[in-house]
Amino acid sequence: MFQHPRAALFLCALSLFAAGEALGQQQTAAAGENIYDMNCAQCHGEKLANAGITFDLKRLKAADRPRFENSVLNGKGQMPPWRGVLKESDIEALWTYIRANANE
Amino acid sequence: MRSNNHIGLLALASFFAACGSAPAFAQSAADLLNDPKNTQSVLTYGMGYKAQRHSALKQINRGNVKNLVAAWAYSMTDQTGLEAQPLVHDGIIYITNHNRTAAVDGVTGKEIWRNNLDYAPELLRIVCCGIVNRGSALFNGKLIRTTLDNRILAMDAKTGKEVWSAKSDADYTKGYSMTVAPLVANGVVITGVAGAEFGIRGFLEGYDAETGKFLWRRYTIPAKGEKGSETWPGDSAETGGGSTWVTGSYDPDLDLVFWGIGNPAPWNPRGRKGDNLYTNSIIAVKPKTGEVAWVTQASPEDPYDHDGVNSLVQAEIKTGGETRKVVMQAHRNGFLYVLDRATGKPIAVNPFVEVNWASGWDYAKGRPIWTDVTIKAQAGEKVNVFPSNYGGTNWFPMSYDPSANLLFINTNAMGMEYQAPEPVKVVAGQPAFGVTTKPIAPEFRGHLKAVDPMTGKAKWSVPFKHINTAGTMNTAGGLVFTGQLSGEFMALDAANGKLLWQFQTPSGIISQPITWEKNGVQYVTVGSGIGGVYAMRVAGPSLGNVPTGSTLWTFKLHGK
Q: What are the chain B neighbours of A38 within 8 Å (beta carbons)?
């Protein structure tokens, strides 16, 4: 299939890297789920199942990352600010979990 | 002459005090004792010290309730849940939520005064189960309430001006918050605290109702070396939970306050092997001192968050040829406890919903009989448990009809898949769970049941798709009032559960209805405003996107 053995090797390495990255994403999403269960589920709904009383996080789109972070850090409406409690890596994990379950 | 006048005045004063109607003695200790009999006012949480939520009023009854119409609605200007029970005195209604205390003319709905409260926004990180307040207390012209940041405030009921303010030595950054309606008993304001999901050490406190002076604190979990501390390994007691976030009741003859103590922390039981005294217990204390008369534990070493703070209703029940003075609790663990008020000794313990974590109560040993489900859960295995962590019922109070000897309870049929994988350490102020749970939801999750206290069996039961997280109230007019999360305020026939009337309020009902009268007209008052842990965390999209926004509603018969 591959005319050049080196190209084959390169692609093979690339797909391994991609698999590794996917695994990393999964781990991040799992970490995010745990953070969500502990801190967010009581208002936003068990496993992101939202009754419409608070903001449905599954509505967040890929481009909403900055406003998501802003709301988490500074609070919004009845939501308390999480600055100083959730680290940047926690917010990234939460975002990965939410996006993995988002509507679109 | 002068002294004669004084004697005359004294006689007059004692006459009025005895009648409980003199303005100068408004909401005196005597008035509070008389609360359930005086249908013009609702001075206490529970509509009387027995917390029966039963009214002798019958102008509105099963024959004419279809003619009930709204008299007015009052906006709380707020999106959080409205759980509070209103109070009524002299035709004025007092209502509270997380950031407002207000007095409203009960006939016209016109606001008389309102006070707003501020608190640090980060406080809401440790409010596990809804940004709420459950109500207030009245005493000698003062309206008394607690705040999320653990203050106890007394306001002039006429003007709303502060009379005194006290601060509990409890820090919200360590997980403590107050959502409870205080109880005034024997001149003492009793308050409890929330936060067992954040590793608090729970307590009850007493404050002088006239001055706000701190009188006592009674921890619900013993300190090292105290009796009961041997039921907590290592340092686990220091963050052991045992919150007290639902108002108890008071027996003035015994001079005892009964209060429910909540779950141990963390939910995961594997790092706190032992009975974990006095979590999930009913406690009786002397209001003047906080001295403990008795404690009865319902769920030792609870792994399930069967947080037994539920309402405590007193009654005189005929059983075995005698009349027993009892206090009753439909516990989150699914059993209905009927205890002797003087001793705390269980007279009857029977399930009022499906229960599989225990097969019954061992009266000789004074403890539940665990099934394999609980033995496996304690060992870290995955199990299906009934009731779930939301309980067979929850904080929303039941009511009691003394003539029919029935309790009206909004119940929850849900179970859960549960596992406590590895023991976890608790840090005060941090979430204390350490378990995985997954709801098991039958088609009809909720039932309003009319339950025989001595058997736990339902005389009638009305199913609902979602549970009703509102209190119940019943009247001599043969009616039971309660509400749905989807906003319907309902009157049902107390004899058979038949729906006789309902009214669609703008939001979900999670509050506690009351009834009262003025100038010969009977009124029914209830809050609408969705919130609370079931609606937000558990209900999910099938609840149907109920609008938020809290309002207080009052109803009367058409033409009255």
A: 431, 433
Return the residue in B125, B127, B198, B546 with the most chain A beta carbons within 10 A, the one to mutate for interface testing.
Answer: B125
Q: From CA A86, how far away is CA B3, in angstroms rounded?
A: 72
> What local confidence, expressed as pLDDT, does residue B21 receive?
39
Binary contact (B536, A75; C-beta < 8 A): no
For residue B241 the two structure tokens come to 């939970």
Domain ranges, ordered by start, for chain A: 26-100
Interface-testing mutation among A35, A44, A53, with chain B (most B C-beta atoms within 10 A) = A53
Q: To which CATH superfamily is domain A26-100 assigned?
A: Cytochrome c-like domain (1.10.760.10)
Give the type of residue at B471: G
Closest CA to B487 of B534, B535, B546, B446: B546
Nearest to B431 among A39, A44, A49 (CB): A39
Tell if the CB–CB gap between B548 and A38 is shorter than 8 Å: no
- Work out the average pLDDT over B40-46: 97
Residues 6+ apart with CB under 8 A from B415: B354, B356, B384, B385, B386, B387, B388, B439, B440
Shortest CA distance to B316 belongs to which of B306, B327, B324? B324
Residues B202-258: tens digit of each pLDDT: 999 999 999 999 999 999 999 999 999 999 999 999 999 999 999 999 999 999 999
* Residue B28: predicted pLDDT: 87
How far is it, in rounded angstroms, from Cα B233 to Cα A34? 27
B332: helix, strand or coil? coil
- CB pair distance less than 8 Å for A43 and B433: no
In this prediction the ipTM stands at 0.89
Closest CA to B514 of B108, B34, B40: B40
| Dist. CA B520–CA B451, nearest whole Å | 32
Which domains are delineated in chain B?
21-557 (2.140.10.10)
Residues of A in contact with B439 (CB under 8 A): 46
pLDDT, tens digit, 9 for 90 and up, residues A66-89: 999 999 999 999 999 999 999 999
pLDDT tens profile B84-130: 999 999 999 999 999 999 999 999 999 999 999 999 999 999 998 89
Q: Any CB–CB contact under 8 A between A78 and chain B? A: yes
Q: What is the separation of C-alpha B431 from the centre of its chain, rounded to a whole number of angstroms?
A: 23
* A residues 30..59 contacting B (CB < 8 A): 37-39, 41-46, 49-54
Residue A5: pLDDT above 60?
no
A44 to chain B: which residues are within 8 Å by CB? 536
Whether residues B536 and A44 touch (CB distance < 8 A) is answered with yes
Cα atoms in the Cβ-side hemisphere of radius 13 Å centred on B332? 27
For chain B, what is the mean pLDDT? 94
Share of chain A above pLDDT 70, in %: 80
Host H or E run for residue B218: strand B214-219
pLDDT tens per residue across span B124-156: 999 988 999 999 999 999 999 999 999 999 999
Identify the residue with better confidence: A10 or B557.
B557
User: Are B146 and B133 spatial neighbours (Cβ–Cβ below 8 Å)?
Assistant: yes
Residue-wise pLDDT tens digits, B189-211: 999 999 999 999 999 999 999 99
Inter-chain CB proximity B548 and A50 less than 8 Å: no
Catalytic residue annotation of B: 305
A103 in reach of chain B (CB within 8 A)? no
